[in-house]
Amino acid sequence: MFTATDFIPKKYTSTIENGNFEWSAPSNIALVKYWGKKDNQIPANPSVSFTLSNCKTITKLGFSKRYTSAPLSETTAIFSFDLLFEGKPKEDFKPKIQKFLERIEIYLPFLKDYHFTIDTQNTFPHSSGIASSASGMSALAMNFMSLEKVLNPEMSDEYFFQKASFLARLGSGSACRSVKGNVVVWGKQANIEGSSDLFGVEFPHTIHDNFKKYQDTILLVDKGEKQVSSTVGHDLMHNHPYAERRFAQAHENLDQLISIFESGNLEEFIKVVESEALTLHAMMMTSMPYYILMKPNTLQIINAIWKFRNETQIPVCFTLDAGANVHVLYPENVSEKVLQFIQDELVVFCQNGQYICDQIGDGAIAL
Ligand code: DP6
Question: Are residues 29 and 46 in the same domain?
């Protein structure tokens, strides 16, 4: 079994002065939700997600060796980096990156030897309410791994991607599910071989053709800043009255998904996915302090989806993130009808009529 210390490198065999890498990494949408964590970004329960395709972060990492007149002492040296968002310096993103570098330094001991320029952009609109932390942390982790691979050319591909996911997790938990494609599990689960609390793994069992090219249309209900961040939300699962039962339920739901993915039973799929979404929000509503992230239009959309599904028997369902936006999930063969329904009946509930069409995708790509 892997432990975190397996990701502390031994001596590097190679050197490099400067250069740059560029990676794109997608967002992902959880079907079984990660909500609640222990120290060091260890999830309280296992989760599973669809990796997305169009919603992604593209990050370029420039690096050059630092030379100072005084030797860089390990205790006094600071990280040296510039952060650009869409080509312009973005000071308010820096503390999050600084914290990320501090967390991963033990696993990437070269970090203080270089000055970095991190140049990042998203393909989805800024402040759309779509969290960019999953795609963003994953894209950055991929770049750092590219640099480590130059320093240690013997590194296997398997280690490369596993460690990238491990590092991304330390930036943002859900980010570890954005490295690889299609269906990714994060968190130890008894019946999913190879599953780990330390990194995401590709779902190892059969996936029915019904789920190939599964569609996710993201309805932007509220693009404002959330009143309660995910970090605070996770924290409120400590001493939460329903936490233990909820964590057990995530294991059960993942078990159910193993057979659902194999059989392609969309009716059962919908039950698990919608229940997970509402349970996530029920956890928020039963936290102390309690809070609600759904908006009236979130509920309008949910009710309209239920009505449409009842009337047409088309297997369309919803899931929610930690916010008001609604992810509408459906198989590719009903796309035309569902998109028509979205335009006719759901767009009115979106802020400025905005929505984003996405689908299952393959994970991070070197550019
Ligand atoms: C509701 O990964 O954003 O989207 O680890 O604190 O960065 P941190 O949290 P984050 O939490 C995401 C929670 C969720 C469910 C999920 O994606 O599984």
Answer: yes
In a domain? residue 366 = no
Domain that holds residue 31: 4-206
- Decide if 54 contacts 357 (C-beta within 8 A): yes
Beta strand residue intervals within the chain, DSSP E: 18-32, 37-38, 42-43, 47-65, 80-85, 88-89, 114-122, 183-186, 200-202, 215-219, 317-320, 326-330, 355-359, 365-366
Q: pTM of the full predicted structure?
A: 0.96
Mean pLDDT is lowest, of 24-28, 207-211, 230-234, for: 230-234
Task: Tell me how many helices (H) and strands (E) the chain has.
Answer: 8, 14
Last residue of a domain, one of 149, 175, 206: 206
Judgement on whether residues 223 and 304 belong to the same structural domain of the protein = yes
Report if residue 14 sits inside a domain.
yes
Domain boundary among 188, 206, 224: 206
Å from CA of 229 to ligand 1 middle: 10
pLDDT one-digit tens code per residue, 274-323: 999 999 999 999 999 999 999 999 999 999 999 999 999 999 999 999 99
Q: Where are the alpha helices (DSSP H) in 105-220?
A: 133-151, 157-171
- The structure tokens listed for 209 are 């053709």
**Alpha helix segments (H runs only) across 108-242:** 133-151, 157-171, 230-235
Spacing, Cα 179 to ligand 1 middle (Å) = 15
Residue ranges lining ligand 1, Cβ < 6 Å: 30, 33-35, 41, 47, 131, 133, 172-174, 230-231, 234, 280, 321-322
Distance of CA 121 to the CA centre of its chain: 16
Classified as helix, coil or strand, 313 is coil
CA dihedral 233, 234, 236, 237 (to 10 degrees): 130
190 plus 261 within the same structural domain: no
Find the 151 Cα to ligand 1 centroid distance in Å.
Answer: 32
Beta-bridged to residue 20, according to DSSP, are 62
Is the pLDDT at 140 greater than 70? The verdict is: yes
CATH of the domain at 143: 3.30.230.10
Among 69, 27, 73, residue whose Cα is nearest residue 52: 27
Question: Judging by beta carbons within 10 Å of its beta carbon (0-12, 13-18, 19+), is residue 73 exposed, middle or buried?
Answer: exposed
